[in-house]
Amino acid sequence: MEKKRWSVIELINWTADYIKEKGFENARLETEWLLSHVLQKKRLELYLNFDRPLDSRELADFKSLLKRRLNHEPVQYILQETEFYSLPFKVNRHVLIPRPETELLVDKVIEHIHKNPKSESYNILDIGTGSGCIAIALAKQIENAHIEAWDVSENALHVAHENAKWNKVDHKICFKQQNVFDAWPSARFDIIVSNPPYIRKNEWQDLAPEIINFEPQSALIAGEDGLTYYRKFASEITNVTAPYSYAFFEIGADMADSMKSIFDMKTKVFQDLAGRDRIIKVEIGG
Known about the structure:
Layout: H1 8-21, H2 27-39, H3 43-48, H4 56-70, H5 75-79, E1 81-84, E2 87-90, H6 103-115, E3 122-127, H7 133-141, E4 145-151, H8 154-166, E5 173-177, E6 189-194, H9 209-212, H10 228-236, E7 241-250, H11 256-262, E8 266-271, E9 277-285
Parallel strand pairs: 3-4, 3-6, 4-5, 6-7
Antiparallel strand pairs: 1-2, 7-9, 8-9
């Protein structure tokens, strides 16, 4: 590649074809992301400068990023940023990459609050906050939200706090290092929300190499049956909630029946855009 003088469009076309042949989905989009990062331009600007030649340093930087992607490192980790709920987030290997389907979890909490408005603050607990994506999205969308966000990882909490500052909601969120399997501190929350680990141990090796080799395993695996965290939630949530409270959890697509037996309360399951069970709402009651 060094012997040729590459223009923006030539490099996009060649790279997209190359990585598509290697079996990568979204080949052109990912190529554009990588090149946008190297050139510090928006994707649209690439095509407004399609005949611009790359210098040797830019080409070397692009090749370095492409090599990492060909090794199945997620683009989000390579670029150290992503988007969730139309908000920007910094990510690294200490935190799970936010998934589009988790936006449904945020939607359902917002929908519930809009149907049940309060004059005073809504006290919300986000368990396993990771990058802070759920807590931050809720803080941006709910004016009277006061959110406490837990994570066992100090490194994850650092990322989450930086994201809260970046999105200008750090004054609405209290981040706390807390192991969910330790005793829960005394508190009273109106809503509990979590996207906990729910992958079964025997499912791990069937996942994509982007997940197996790069994402934090502790944020994904939950024992032999994937239900470890939900059982803990069921044993604790009545101790930290106000009267007539609700919990919203992301779940695996085949876990709805198990959820209804674990939570001996009124529940409702919501499907994602693909028609898979994805969110459970638990009415904790008075």
